[in-house]
Structures are given as structure tokens and as C-alpha cells.
Amino acid sequence: MKLNVSINGYGTIGKRVVEAVVKHPFLNLIGIGKYTPDHEALLAIEKGFPVFAPKNSIPKFLERGIKIEGSIEEMIKFSDVIIDCSPAGKGIENKRIYALNNKKAIFQGGEPKEIAELSFNSRCNFDAAREKKYIRVVSCNTTALCRIIKPLMENYKIKNVEAVLLRRAADPCDDKTGPINAVKWSSSPSHHAEDVKTVIENIQISTSAFVIPHTLTHLTYLTFNFNNDSPTKEEMYEIFKKERRVAVIENAQSTAQLIEASRDLELKRYDTYMVYLLMNTFHKNENKISFTIVTPQESIVIPENIDALIAQSNLMNKDEAQKLTEKILGIDLIKNSMEKIFSNPLTIESSIHA
Amino acid sequence: MKLNVSINGYGTIGKRVVEAVVKHPFLNLIGIGKYTPDHEALLAIEKGFPVFAPKNSIPKFLERGIKIEGSIEEMIKFSDVIIDCSPAGKGIENKRIYALNNKKAIFQGGEPKEIAELSFNSRCNFDAAREKKYIRVVSCNTTALCRIIKPLMENYKIKNVEAVLLRRAADPCDDKTGPINAVKWSSSPSHHAEDVKTVIENIQISTSAFVIPHTLTHLTYLTFNFNNDSPTKEEMYEIFKKERRVAVIENAQSTAQLIEASRDLELKRYDTYMVYLLMNTFHKNENKISFTIVTPQESIVIPENIDALIAQSNLMNKDEAQKLTEKILGIDLIKNSMEKIFSNPLTIESSIHA
User: Fold this and answer.
1) What span, in angstroms and rounded, lies between the C-alpha atoms of B309 and B314?
2) Does residue B189 have a cis bond before it (omega within 30 degrees)?
3) Going edge to edge, which strands form the sheet with A246-249?
4) Is A146 annotated in the active site?
5) A237 by DSSP, 3-state: which?
6) Which pLDDT belongs to residue A113?
7) A219: chain B residues, CB-CB within 8 Å
8) Rounded to an integer, what distance in angstroms lies between the CA atom of residue A132 and that of residue A116?
9) Smallest CA–CA distance from A190 into chain B, residue
10) Which positions of chain B have pLDDT values less than 50?
């Protein structure tokens, strides 16, 4: 018995979630909810996905030659779970329809935390998602921060964390927003600290954010203060060796190098699903360490959405579920390749001994 | 008796220094040293400035219709002081010629500190420049950091300073470098901390740097840790009220807003010569404060170059010299206008009571 899943909204996150769902042996794609009769709808059909539209909009889709399977209301009725990938803020509106039909749903990090019973990060609280009707997968930056903070927290006593975020101005698909030659700043502190606390409650964290003219990845400069002991560079490698969704790299100097490697490795849409930990930016001073991470904003939450589905419907245990998600997305190979290319000493050593 | 000054190199800094020199009542421009026979040379002549070229290159200049007053070697002989504004690293080479002719010289921050007897920042060590034969005016970022650190140091006991620099990728005049859609990082820590220590010796400071695709201004996220007491927002306003080369502003959200205001105020090349302290980014947590500053990289060192000239040749006392430099460049008016436009409460109050 497969879980019947529909994806409501077909933007940056939605299109990637759909492709992961159809590859997953336990999931059955019912359809995609699409609101605008544009080329993205035709592209979804071209790829063979069933497209649904709001009842009132169906004539507009048909006029433009876009084949529609039915209304979004019908799609919801056929589904066990809806992954809501609509634009930030729209999820609240959609939730009423899911509730009316007594359906489970997964929302994205652009929604307020109150939308769901749980703010989810697979590394931090997979098991808490079991049997929850509504789950919110936290945003790309929060996901990256959780993947980095949690392992350090399990090994050392963190006094506090400070993060300076350099946010990309727009996604590659976005032709509406900027800036292209300006930097914006948030009145400090930014909302990201509070969002991390929806997943990791007992953490002291403050965040500041800049928007920079760049479309590929967010960057975050992190400072960790520890109560007493703090990790050396070698200990950082050891701790994050076990983290399958963190690529720990040494010899990269720019986001351009990371993106070019992803293209050369023929990764679909150069998605890597993982956060990069830049070890050549690491420095340690007594009980304080600093380093920078890079977050591929389009793809990092995709494995989290799949894990949330599996946990919510109690289909597998945590480790099996995560490993299957990673297999489908090719995450292990990506981590291994990136770490070799950019000189993680442990990955290079293990490949020599293999 | 005026001081005879020549400017060797006519790039981003050189062209601005020349225009400040010709406005100064105590300075006499001998000429500009130009190495490439390009449109910038013709522009200098169009503005009425005497242009000199290397002896061997003069025929190439004449061929292109560029009127040359003589060789750079002659220009140096006619001068009391040379302000070396050549590209970073070239100053060392030029210094031999200045020394051979027994001339005083001022170098820019791109040169190593060993080039000069003093690394100069007008706010920090004006009087130390008296009678020094060779002076190095520190770089734009170091100048900005010095203008912010020194006043805080005079009022509070600083434990340490941490700075995250977001550096502009290229100057507006630069059509050679990038990146345009990538972020570069420096292996931490960056060189800026060491450069600040050439001016302020007894400071604990560490710096990290990113290069971002942007041409207008550097930004720096600063964290100050104090030994005991630390300033409130109100105290920050009080301390920096007296700093004539720091604009303390509240209601700006992006560099685009600062630049557009500079253009609307009809500032030449939208130069403001000052560092912006963004008070809407200020936050305080016990003995720690954080905030962001914005550094107009092309113009901030211009007043410092003029002050260095005056101090070196012992022409005026510190306060008179700085005020005359500021009058020539219009700095007081610029600070006042920017603070009013972007809502500094003290500046608004004083204009109501005036």
C-alpha cells in the first residue's frame, strides 16, 4: 500500500518535491496543484505529471492547451497527504481546505510556526513527527543551521551561537526581484534565530541578515561560543564525517566553484541537497570557533519534505527512512564527490584505503 | 608659501585627491603622473590639470594627442611631496625615485606597512605624522574601522572586536574584475585585523571577509565585546555626534537608498567621504554590542590624504587642518544632510532648535 501524495504549488520547492515523490517506492503521486496557466504547467505535463487546477480556473488552462486532470479540490480528496508548496503565506488559506477534507498536510518554512503542530528538521526531531496531522518543514536557512548546530550540541556545551546571513537576492528562476547592485540589511536581529528555536528549543542564538545581489546559495558566517571545551579542526572533521547531509570541504574559495562542480558532475539543476561546511574559513580562539556555511536554497529542504511524509505516516524508522531518501536523491554520492573534489582529508583517505 | 604637491597615479584615489588639492589654500598642484595614454589622461587635461608621463612613454602620449607637461621624473623634482596613488604594490617601486630625489611621500593602504614610518588615520594619529618623511594612509576599510573603534575605545574598555566584511567586487570604474553572480570568501582570518593594528596598537580584533557582487560601498558587520560597561543606543548617538566623519543614521534599509540620496543631493560622483553607522542594525546584549557600518570605498580616504599632507609638513594644528579639509570637501553639510534624511534624532532636534 502506497501513500497517496499530492503537491499543491509547483514553484522552486514543489517541482523538486514532485520528482522525489515519484522516485520513492512508498509514495504514489496523485497530482500537482497549479494555479497559473503558464509554461511551468506545460513543462509538468511534458514530464508526465498529472496537473490539477482550481475549479474556476480550469477553462483558462484548457484555452491555453493545458490538459487538466481535475480540480484541486478533487486532487485533495484523492490524497492521503498534501505537501503544500504554495508561496509563503498562502498555506494558511489552503489549510482550511485540507482540514475540511480531514487530510494530513506538510507546509513549508515560509508559513508561521502556528500553522502546524511541529516544525520539522529530520536530523533534530524525525520521531516527533509520527502521527502529527500538520507538519511545517523549516526554511532552507533554518534547515542548514539545524544540521550544523545539532551535531555540535551533542558533542559540546554551546553557550551561544551568532549567525550573519548573506542571503541570495533571488532564485535563478525568479525574474521579478532584486537587488542587482545593492545590499539590503535587516533591522537586527533577524527572524532566523526564532525559527531555529522552533526546532531546537534550548539554544541561545542571535542572527543578523543581509540580502546580496547573488542568486546561487545563501552563506552564513557562524560563531559558536562554548562553555568550556570547543572542537579543534580535526574534531570538526570527525563530528561531521557522520553527517550525511553536510559536505565538509577544505579547498573551495567561492560559490562559483561549488556550482561549477555541481554542473560538471551533471547533477540535475545542480541541486546538492546539502549544506557545505567550509573548513578553510574555520578558526578557533579558546572556547570560540567561527566558520562559514553555504546553503543551496532551492534543494536543501527536499529530503526534509520526504522524511516528513514518511515519519508522519509512520512508514519506516528514522535511519531507514533517511537512507532511502538519500539514495533516491543521490545524496551520498554527492557528498562523497564534493568532499573529494574539495579535499576533505577523511574522504580522500577512505577512498585511498578502499 | 604653498606646499608643492604632485599626485603620481590617476585612478580611483588619485583623481579625487587631485581635486581636493587644487581646492586647498595651502597646497599647489604641480601635476599628475599618468602611465597610460588613455581617455582618463584626456579627461585630466580637459579639467585643466598638468599631466606628466614617464620619459620613455611621452611619444606615445603625444601620438594620441595628449599634451604632456614633462616627465614624471621632472614632476617629482618640482615637488615638495608626492602623493603616490599608483596601483597597490607599485608604490614600493616608486619610492626609490622619491628617495633618490630626497622627497617626502604619502602612500596608499594597498602598500605594505613597511613602506612608511607611519600608518596614518587622521582621527587616531594625526600628530604622529609631523615631520615623517614617508606616511601610509591606511585602506578604506581600515579607515572606516579606525573611525568607529577609536571613539568607542575612548569611552569604554573594549575586550575585543570582531568584524565580518562584505567587500564590493569592483569599483564602478572597473570593467575588468568580478564576480557578478558569486560570493568569494577569504580563508579566515582576513588581513584587515592586522592593518587596523598598524594604527591602533592595543586592540584585540579579528576579521573575516567576503567578496560580493556589488560595486557601491563595502559593508562591515561589527561585534564589540566590552570588559564591563557597554554603550546603549542613546550613548552611541552621543559619542558619534562629535565624530564629523561618521554619519549616524537610523532609517535606511539598503546601500541603494544611501547612493540615491547622494545622487539627489548632487554630490560629485556621489562621494560622501564618511562611514555610515546604521543604528537600525544596533543591538546590545549585556556587555556586547553589534551593528553594521557602510564604507564608500572610493572617497573615504580622500580627507585622510589631505590631512596627512598637512600634518607631515607641519602646516596647521590637527583641529584646524581637519576642519579645513572637511570644508573643502563639504563633509559637514553631507553628514548633516544624510543624518536628517535618514533620521538621526539628534540632528533633527538640533535643526528644530536652530
Assistant:
1) 8
2) yes
3) A184-185, A205-212, A158-168, A218-226, A288-295, A275-285, A246-249
4) no
5) helix
6) 97
7) 183, 185, 210
8) 9
9) B281
10) none
Cis amide leading into A179 (omega within 30): yes
Q: Which of B189, B214, B292 is opposite residue A181, by nearest beta carbon?
A: B214
Cross-chain Cβ contact A254/B179 below 8 Å: yes
DSSP assignments along A124-147, one per residue: HHGGGGTT-SEEEEPPHHHHHHHH
Range A32-48 average pLDDT: 96
C-alpha cell at B307: 590631512
Burial (Cβ within 10 Å: 0-12, 13-18, ≥19) of residue B89 = exposed
Say which of B181, B214, B282 has its CB closest to residue A183.
B214
Tens-digit pLDDT profile for residues A170-191? 999 999 999 999 999 998 789 9
Interface probe, candidates A168, A181, A223, A282, chain B, greatest B C-beta count within 10 A: A181
- Nearest CA to A163 among A107, A243, A219? A219
> Which residues of chain B does A285 touch, with a Cβ-Cβ cutoff of 8 Å?
206
A169 to chain B: closest CA residue:
B181
Q: Evaluate if residue A353 carries a pLDDT over 90.
A: no
A281/B208 Cβ within 8 A: yes
Does the distance separating the beta carbons of B183 and A210 come in below 8 Å?
Answer: no
Determine the residue of chain B that is closest to A256 in CA distance. Answer: B182
pLDDT digits (tens, 9 = 90+) for A65-118: 999 999 999 999 999 999 999 999 999 999 999 999 999 999 999 999 999 999
Digit-coded pLDDT (tens) for B11-43: 999 999 999 999 999 999 999 999 999 999 999
Other Cβ atoms closer than 10 A to A19: 19
**Which residue in A85, A124, A140, A146 is the catalytic one?**
A140
Digit-coded pLDDT (tens) for A188-226 = 789 999 999 999 999 999 999 999 999 999 999 999 999
Strand B27-33 versus strand B275-285 pairing type? unpaired
The distance of B199 to chain A (nearest Cα, Å) reads 23
Among A184, A189, A255, the residue with its CB nearest the CB of B183 is A255
User: Min CA distance, B250 vs chain A (Å)?
Assistant: 10
Provide the mean pLDDT of chain A.
96
CA–CA distances in Å: residue A171 to residues A174, A245, A257, B182: 5, 21, 18, 13
Res. A352: pLDDT tops 80 = no
Instruction: Please answer yes or no on whether A283 and B188 come within 8 Å at the CB atom.
Output: yes
